[in-house]
Amino acid sequence: FWDFTSDLAKGDTAYTTMALAAHTDTTYFTDPCGLQIFHLLSHTDGTGGASLLVDGFYVASILKELHPDVYKLLSTIRVPTHAAGEPDSLYRPTPLAGYPIINRDPVTGELLLVRYNNDDRSVLNNIAAGDMEKWYDALRVWNTFLTSPDSEYWVQLTPGTVVAIDNHRVLHGRSAFDGKRRMCGAYIGFDEYRSKLAVLSEKFRTDSVSNAAAQLVDGRSVWSTDF
């Protein structure tokens, strides 16, 4: 859980009043947070701070269709990341080479997650010299579609509003603001989320196969395909 205002209490752009471009959080973790919850508590003596949401899978699908070479490049070249805004912490993922912006299943090729935060990017020291300019060109194309009007969804939160997003898919940001703004929220691991979803889906399933299968072990159908 976290709670912050624009008081510069930490070396993090979230603790400022500046605009933040669309990004996913915790790209510097080996396993980025799964669900992210935002709860606007208050905003007084000022305006601005509209919330930005972008479906990363939508942007990736456009790249795959219109720019397959860019899609391939952004899903293969690893991007090192880190967080070092505090003197007593230095977060880097394993492996240190990081992960691509577009992450796919190595077997099926299915799109799994998008991890992109330009402010957390480290030195690109693992890219072959001949691929460096190609990667930056690909990043420009990615940013063009990421910031296009049809990709961006803007909403002005009001105090008391709670928003939950899939941090593996949805990028978020905000416009600049002034005044006193207080936001709290939480990170939820994706494994915990999927575990709860699987258990509840099994519990409330209404298909004929589950209804017909009366064999239960610890309350779970022996015919379950969720594990």
From TrEMBL:
Would you say which domain of life the source belongs to? Answer: Eukaryota
| Pfam families attached to this UniProt entry | TauD
- Looking at the record, the residues that make up the TauD/TfdA-like domain are 5-187
One annotated GO molecular function: dioxygenase activity
Q: Which GO terms describe its cellular component?
A: mitochondrion
Q: In which pathway does it act?
A: Amine and polyamine biosynthesis; carnitine biosynthesis
Record keywords: Carnitine biosynthesis, Dioxygenase, Iron, Metal-binding, Oxidoreductase
Q: GO biological process annotations for this chain's record?
A: carnitine biosynthetic process
Q: Which InterPro entries match?
A: AlphaKG_dependent_hydroxylases, TauD-like_sf, TauD/TfdA-like
Required co-factors: Fe(2+); L-ascorbate
Give the protein family.
Belongs to the gamma-BBH/TMLD family.
Please report the name of this protein according to its UniProt entry: Clavaminate synthase-like protein
